[in-house]
């Protein structure tokens, strides 16, 4: 267990300045990245086309570049949460490293509460069906619609 340390700086949750500070802090994360980089508050996605060896090498260079960025900013990627998702027919399913360790491959990817498998089939998990349906229905609220609730 870690030793307790006083917190010397923080941004209280819910402040308007929080997202601004987040964008300032991670704004340069994608500098020099060749592939598509998506940054979110709690995760980052790197996507690239791997129809030839050059695509595989570009993804690996970008992973190395992101690792150097994290080290320079006194951060670490949680390697146990890093996954490679191969999609599309004929994907060569190359392996990639982060800090010299192989990244585990995953048969599906989760985004916005929905899983997508390598054949592009979309499906919510059992626990997420009600919130997923609720979010879909909230986008198109016709008059007199009954609210969908999750049973116990």
Describe the structure.
The chain is of the alpha+beta class and 152 residues long. Helices cover 27% and strands 18% of the residues. The chain contains three helices and nine strands. The strands form four sheets. The chain has a three-stranded antiparallel beta sheet with strand order 7-8-9, with no helix packed on it. It has a two-stranded antiparallel ribbon with strand order 1-2. A two-stranded parallel sheet has the order 3-6.
Question: What percentage of residues falls in helices of 4 or more residues?
Answer: 25-40%
Oligomeric state of this protein = single chain
Shape: globular
Structural class: alpha+beta
The H-and-E topology, N to C, reads as: HEEHEEEEEEEH
> Overall mean pLDDT score?
76
Separation of termini?
A: 36 Å
Annotation keywords:
152 residues; alpha+beta; three-stranded antiparallel β-sheet; two-stranded antiparallel sheet; globular; disordered C terminus; RNA-directed DNA polymerase; RNA-directed DNA polymerase activity; transferase; Rna-directed dna polymerase from mobile element jockey-like; nucleotidyltransferase
Brief sketch in words of this structure:
The protein is α+β, with helices and mostly antiparallel strands and 152 residues long. The chain has helices spanning 17-26, 53-72, 129-139, and strands spanning 36-39, 44-47, 83-85, 97-98, 101-102, 104-106, 108-111, 114-117, 122-123.
């Amino acid at each position: 267990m870690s030793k307790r340390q006083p917190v010397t700086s923080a941004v209280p949750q819910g402040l308007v300045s929080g997202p601004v500070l987040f964008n300032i802090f991670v704004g340069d994360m994608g500098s020099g990245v060749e592939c598509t980089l998506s940054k979110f508050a709690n995760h980052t996605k790197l996507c690239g086309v791997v129809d030839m060896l050059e695509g595989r090498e570009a993804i690996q260079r970008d992973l190395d570049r992101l690792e150097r960025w994290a080290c320079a900013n006194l951060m670490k990627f949680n390697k146990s949460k890093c996954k490679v998702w191969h999609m599309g027919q004929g994907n060569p399913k190359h392996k990639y490293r982060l800090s010299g360790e192989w990244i585990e491959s995953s048969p599906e990817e989760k985004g916005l509460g929905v899983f997508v498998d390598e054949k592009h089939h979309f499906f919510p998990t059992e626990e997420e069906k009600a919130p997923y349906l609720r979010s879909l229905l909230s986008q198109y609220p016709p008059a007199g619609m009954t609210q969908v609730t999750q049973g116990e």
